[in-house]
Amino acid sequence: MRSYDEYCAIAKSLDVVGDRWTLLIVRELALRGGCRYTDLRNGLPGIASNLLAERLRELEHAGVIAREDAPPPIATTLFRLTARGEQLRPVLEDLIRWGLPLMTEQKPGDAVRSHWLVWALELMLTDRRPDASPVTVELQAGDEPIVIETRDGTIHTRLGRADSADATLTGPPRPILGLLLGLIQPGDAKANGIDYQGDPAILDRIGAETTPPPS
Amino acid sequence: MRSYDEYCAIAKSLDVVGDRWTLLIVRELALRGGCRYTDLRNGLPGIASNLLAERLRELEHAGVIAREDAPPPIATTLFRLTARGEQLRPVLEDLIRWGLPLMTEQKPGDAVRSHWLVWALELMLTDRRPDASPVTVELQAGDEPIVIETRDGTIHTRLGRADSADATLTGPPRPILGLLLGLIQPGDAKANGIDYQGDPAILDRIGAETTPPPS
DNA sequence: CAGCATCCGCTTTGATACTG
DNA sequence: CAGTATCAAAGCGGATGCTG
Q1: A16 contacts B102? CB cut-off 8 A
Q2: How far apart are CA A41 and CA A35, in angstroms?
């Protein structure tokens, strides 16, 4: 990107991460840890190969990411956030919070990756009964299953399957998010294509921290 | 900007504010409140006129800003952040924090506006002796004077002049910032073109919250 | 003067194909 | 797997002109 040529901290930041695709590359590395070129490509549907290569070069030069030769049995290059790159997490978290109300619209062509939803769910959900015994919910909403767990009264989310889920939600991502956010009533869940297995009371316990305004 | 077409809160946010210049327009409105087209133009040196008009249209359509007809004696249009736009402040604050270490380099062609520095100073400075009587420092560093004041143990900054400053710093922006951040020793201030009037002990009292790593 | 719209050359991006 | 190469299309920057 061409520099803004301003002596301003915001402009200087955007000189580094303001390019198209750049923050989404940081997102991928923040969510998934070390990634191969191919992993990044899969997590950034639509990016041109030359652009990905160029952005990675620029980010490395700026000290945001580092290249790393994986240990012998793997024999590939891994891209990883540096300490400086990790410090971009607050920016990404604020963008998630700001973007959540926009998740009520899902365009037909929108790509879906479960790992994009994991961070958002952890930021927005809260355990309304922190002293009760922990619960586990499994979501089947994207390309991979997601687990929501309560631990010490706080919510933790991760990709993967649960050993024993207290509830399982299966369906398209948008209604599932709407149900968890309280925008869809549990009674309307089935009408929105959601299959619910388990104790319905869990939905009351795990809910949105602050109900987002209806746009 | 072309949509990323991803069902991801970060991508949805960037679909709205990821365009070139867009976040800097929000910065101007966040820092200065209601602005005329001409004010925005002055605060965004280098932006093409058609781009500013186009971005303003997009931001209005996205509900981030609103147009407002100023009261009769002024007879002009004011652009203002909506409540939704105000919620972008955390994003801008994180970008300021992340970009601060980059302020150690000031390219020769970099434009300087005092109001860009005001927010950064408020975020990074702290009053190390909150119980002592309040102090006022005036900076003559950019196109407008800046006032730094302690109030109830917290730092407040604003554009303007102080009625009675306990100290006044005059000089180029970068060394002044370096002095306040502790990257330049008070003894080296004069060698960096800084003129200091007042009690030098104030520099010990008002300092950087966390010393940024030397790049 | 404030608030744009138009035109044009240049740069960046997107889509695809190809390579060590 | 991890990129380069190529080229058309879109976006941007700078200048200028128009309208209330």
Answers
A1: yes
A2: 10
